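Form 7-S
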Amino acid sequence: MAVLLFLDLFGIIKFTYPKIVKIENTLNNPIKVSKINGNQIILEDGRIIETQLNNEKLNYWIKKSDFFIELKDVGKPIGICFDLYSNNPRGLCGNQWGGMIMLKIIPIPITMKAHRHRFAFGEILINRKSQQKDALKSDSAIAESE
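Output:
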């Protein structure tokens, strides 16, 4: 038994291994993506954002973030131009877990950290949120005039 502990201490044999239990969400105000159409992102609330990225790169970054993104307003006029952010999970460093011989006996639960990653710049083409508000205002104005 003492020999096994000695071999573990010097990294020749490892009995523990990392088991990822959770990846932390780093987005402050996540918004669900319902569809990607070419270089356009269609959000669940109806907004359509056009980006400079192609479909393949958009799919890559949005899938990494479980179809949630964050919008950060950067443009003038306000509410038109956005930086788009996704979660980017970090990898595990194998140095502390690696050994010449790995015997996966004892799992060590790990919560992985992620970081926000700016992956694109986008412009809103259709803002259905504001269109719906305008429609409700005009409907109420018509109702009041009658």
